[in-house]
Amino acid sequence: MSDLKTTPLRDLHVELGGKMVPFAGYEMPVQFPLGVMKEHLHTRTRAGLFDVSHMGQVIVFHNDGYRSAALAMESLVPVNLVVLGENRQRYGFFTNEQGGIEDDLMIANRGDHMFVVVNAACKEADVALMRDGLEGCSVDEIDDRALLALQGPSAESVLSGLVPDVAAMKFMDVGMFSSDFGELWISRSGYTGEDGYEISVENEQAVALARALLAHDDVEPIGLGARDSLRLEGGLCLYGNDIDSKTSPVEAALTWAIQKARRKGGEREGGFPGADRILDELENGAARTRVGLRPEGRAPMRDGTALYAEAEGGGSVGHVTSGAYGPTIEAPMSMGYVTSDLAAVGTQLFGEVRGKRQPVTVAAMPFTPANFKR
Amino acid sequence: MKYTEEHEWLRVEDDVVVVGITSHASEQLGDVVFVELPDVGTEVTKDDDVVVIESVKAASDILAPIDGEIVEVNEALADEPGKVNEDPEGDAWFFKIKASDPGQMDDYMDEAAYKKFIG
């Protein structure tokens, strides 16, 4: 794994018994001795600590302030960023000329500038896209900070023991806090469907902060395996699996992230790549739709599984893009794309597993109720 | 007890062979969430896929170690696949096979050789 990049927590992961694997060019822990299933359940019942330092942290600065940076960013992202309040963040995505999704990201208003978090595998392309596309802005990738996520119902009590003011934060609030571990950039968000925080910390302080969090009885280190099953139970998309440069936000059922101001008739209608297709699909629907799927029985339907409307015969009506066993729901779960006439919750479909068509039902997502602090 | 390079253990009980996976294999698989067993009475040939195991990580197959007939399967694993992690070399056997060519057993490793094999 010598040509892989490492995060400041790499040696700590190894010390804690993490099983290291290559992921998005980084050497990352896929699981710890607890194992994927128990790590998942621990996060849902107490708190899990995740190393997400491989993700890209980017500062976008405009001399005229946040509003100007937001207006520039709106040319790449179909989200209403101008109205985003100070110390608040929003989910969004970069679109391309074909109306597909280039990456999904978090965008925060930090007063005099914008702070953006993007996926590890896309960060070089995203930074290039922003440098190229954001008129009048400077785009700085932050490489001297690690990113930790503390997720689960105990996250507030644990983190507020170190940084008392985080208890008052609401879901999608962001802030800068001084602490024993230097200045922390904290958001109340995550990607597990649980309440929790994402904490940006200087590289030199990252291990000390991680150890302080892990010292709490309620906190266990969690690997990428459980991160994947947690986000899937939470109904959240994994870029590269469930959304990609060919899926539009309407197909991906992410229309909730496109506010009225950017839609047809809105104050700042369109003006982002692929607007023709996306605005049309917002009005008239898309040919296919991302749905949740609950297989009957215990066998997971994994990504690539072909879906059919009938138990025998007929062509494929879609496919699974993510599938796993859900430790909290104690059942297999998948998400995937089906033709939109078959996307209603309760629709009976069939997935072909090892040559046999097995029944599967279109289901509401998230599979587990979200537990955010609104 | 005999062992295969596919990390199965084989225990001879009179004229049938009981088949399971080793602790080493169970650890590598991670938490097992689904087990699909063959039908009793199925005639199998060495290296046929006879059992599907799905773990939190991936799907994998268990191969028939010898030619013969499946005479019993461990139905309890269908309801409690986690037993494969809890007691892989005891309660969590998968199937019993009546050997049509018992000589095929001679090809497999004994415990010392298997331990060396997994390093």
What would you say this structure looks like, in words?
- The complex is a heterodimer of chains A (374) and B (119).
- By secondary structure, chain A is α+β, with helices and mostly antiparallel strands.
- Chain A has helices at 10-15, 36-45, 66-73, 123-133, 155-160, 203-214, 224-233, 275-284; strands at 19-23, 26-31, 47-51, 56-62, 88-95, 101-109, 114-118, 137-141, 145-151, 174-179, 182-187, 196-202, 219-221, 288-295, 306-308, 316-326, 331-339, 348-353, 356-363.
- In chain A, strands 10-11-12-9-3-13 form a 6-stranded mixed sheet, with helices on both faces.
- In chain A, strand 6 and strand 7 (114-118) form a beta hairpin.
- The radius of gyration of chain A is 21 Å and the shape is globular.
- Chain B is an alpha+beta fold.
- A 6-stranded antiparallel sheet of chain B has the order 1-2-3-9-8-5.
- The chains are: A alpha+beta (374), B alpha+beta (119).
- The A-B interface holds A 31, 35-38, 225, 229, 298-300, 302, 324-325, 327, 332, 354 and B 30-31, 33-34, 36, 52, 54, 56-57, 59, 78, 81.
Give a nutshell description of this structure:
The complex is a heterodimer of chains A (374) and B (119). Chain A has 374 residues and is α+β, with helices and mostly antiparallel strands.
Total beta strands of chain A: 19
In what range is the share of β-strand residues of chain A?
A: 25-35%
* Mean pLDDT over the full residue set of chain A: 97
Helix/strand order of chain A: HEEHEEHEEEHEEHEEEHEHHEEEEEE
Question: What's the CATH C level of chain B?
Answer: Mainly Beta
Cα-atom radius of gyration of chain B: 13 Å
Stretches of chain A where pLDDT falls below 50 for ≥5 residues? none
* Largest sheet report of chain A: 6 strands, mixed
Say how many strands of chain B there are: 9
Shape of chain A: globular
The outline of chain B comes out as globular
Largest Cβ-defined interface: A-B, 16 and 12 residues
Main beta-sheet annotation of chain B: 6 strands, antiparallel
CATH level 3 topology of the domain at 10-53 and 144-233 in chain A: Gyrase A, domain 2
How confident is the prediction overall: mean pLDDT of chain B?
Answer: 94
Give the helices and strands of chain B as they follow along the chain: EEEHEEEEEHHEH
Helix/strand-derived class of chain B? alpha+beta
Rounded to the nearest angstrom, the radius of gyration of chain A is: 21 Å
